[in-house]
Give the backbone structure.
Amino acid sequence: MAVQAKQSKAVLLCGYYGEHNLGDDALLQVLLQELPSRLQPWITANDSNVIKGLAPKAQVINRRSLLGSIRALFQVQGLILGGGSLLQDSTSFKSLIYYLILIVIAQQRGVPVVLWGQGLGPFRYRLSRWMVRRVLRRVQAISWRDPDSFELAQQWCLPSPMLMAPDPVWQLPSRSWEGGQAVVLCWRSTSMLDRFGWQHLLQALEMILRDIDAPVHWLAFHQRQDDELFRTLDRQGLISSSLRSRSHSFAFDSPTEVMNQFTMARLVLPMRLHALILAQLAGSPTVALSYDPKVSSAALMANVPFTDLQSLPDIRLLAGLWRQVLDVPPNLGKIEAIRKKASQHSKIIDRVFD
């Protein structure tokens, strides 16, 4: 008797895609690789050109149109919230409501809902916590990307099957580090750094640059948020003439291009979580600057030295730490172990859409 092929299903992949944030585009790249071939992706995104480069046959839905996303839910057989921290209100209460509306409508239609590689929180409002807790009680499966999110979900006694694994981006292929070129800065604006804080970092940077003949590459990981940082600091008089002459600004369109840059770096100083992860996968010498607990957590897990922006050490100590790591690649065995653990996220997709 012939075995009947499993029927193709359309699934809506919902996230912060196509917004020129390389971290979220890296998450989408991994998610697409994990999707079984029988699942046809419909993807919410802003810039459809980014998506067409990753999934030429995918149906692209304007993520900035709630109505368009709702209409898509009536044409698919599954909803996957793919990666990042979508269920939080610290960035925007409005965006939290957007995602909750989609989950509730999917639940009312009987469409399976999966949270894949998600963070949970932070929450500023009690109402946010109450709504998220209530809605999550009826999702089919969840994978969390960090211990704090998993612990909070356990405290909420959610009945859904859950697992916790390192951020899905760790699953991207690792590279062989070559080094020998630039010091790469993946910095972002943050309320944790005032004029004196930025001055502190830049003076430490200049201390190590006195000893090495290397250019400085300012890499805008989130183009719309990071691209103006160098010019802003320069207008404030914080960039010296010597640093200005060494500095070059870059904005790439794909995680692959970023990793190409990282493999040639003598040192990478990331602030963003996924910049840290991609630097490690590229085998680059890395010291993180943490503005967020998730960055500190990832650095600790990977044995990456890091400095908390809320408690910057003396300039000489900071420069000394960076100098120690310069041209010293990470432990590849540690990275491979993390990559293996991160592959567990795929289990929930297989379980729900088998």
User: Anything to note?
Assistant: The domain at 183-328 is CATH 3.40.50.2000 (Rossmann fold).
